[in-house]
Amino acid sequence: MGGLSRGRATQTEIDGKVAIRLTGEVSLKNNGGFIQIAFDLKNSGQTFDASSWTGIKLNVFGNNEIYDIRLRTDQIVRPWQSFRKEFLAKKEWTSIRLPFFNFQPHRIEETLDPARLRRIGVLAIGRQMQADISVARVELYR
To answer: pTM of whole model > 0.85?
Structure first.
């Protein structure tokens, strides 16, 4: 978490779907500004080759707010670097497809190489907000 932001991740069931739910308050105070849920693609921290897929598909239920998905690869050496894409989390279960070519590099000169993926994160970031997003599924699609 950043600065004074507060968040909590819990396992829940919404409309019959088991999900991880991220709730909390994003605060911009004290150089803050985010809360997140994230996972490594391999327990060992090694890279995962996703180059034969088109992108990432999320099954989400939110509160009609904009969230970020952030990808980290072994190309990234600083904590503030990432490849990112915003998406709207509606107040209903929605499948969102995010092609790899739509991810923008942040504070890195590289282009996303899906063959070098390590970590995926879902963030509430960048503005004062009440976060409430549930993620039932994260998968690759062709």
So the answer is: yes
